[in-house]
Write a structure and sequence with these properties.
The chain has a single domain, classed as Vaccinia Virus protein VP39 (Rossmann fold), CATH 3.40.50.150. It is built from four helices and five strands, in the order H-H-E-H-E-E-H-E-E. The protein has 141 residues and is α+β, with helices and mostly antiparallel strands. Strands 1, 2, 3, 4 and 5 form a five-stranded mixed sheet that branches. It is globular and about 40 Å long.
């Protein structure tokens, strides 16, 4: 990303928003984070885990077991009426995330239009299908 006036302005606006809202940044295992915080139905949880079917340095510790652990946690949050959103990759190059596909059938799935280049392998993500999955209806207004 090129640094320009718009990026500077967006960063300043983001800093103002954080200063005027209750925001928490954490560096914990997702399950540890959920279990160590009092999460209520008025809260919203956003998760952007490593993608099971893509390649990058931080994906090395992510596997099918971690993927299922995350989905089980999201199912539990759904039972508690806690809204959440999940970014993930359904298809990338010649790989398809069947686990994600089957699990996501019970939730709302939105396609993410992306036309950016992957920093990892410098490839355009035209042969990929990125999705945003939620357990609530997205407001269209």
């Amino acid at each position: 990303m090129d640094w320009n006036k718009n990026v500077t302005e967006a960063l300043i606006n983001y800093a103002h928003w954080i200063n005027n809202n209750i925001v928490s940044f954490n560096n914990l295992d997702f399950e540890e984070f959920i279990n160590s915080n009092h999460i209520e139905s008025r809260d919203f949880i956003y998760l952007d885990p490593p993608y099971l079917i893509t390649f990058s340095d931080y994906n090395k510790l992510w596997n099918e077991q971690e993927e299922m652990r995350l989905y089980n946690l999201l199912d539990e949050l759904d039972k508690r009426n806690i809204k959440w959103g999940l970014s993930n990759m359904l298809r990338h190059k010649d790989k398809f995330n069947n686990i994600l596909y089957e699990w996501s059938k019970k939730y709302k799935v939105y396609n993410v239009k992306s036309n950016y280049i992957s920093r990892f392998d410098n490839s355009i993500k035209m042969d990929s299908r990125e999705v945003y999955i939620t357990n609530y209806e997205k407001d269209r207004t």
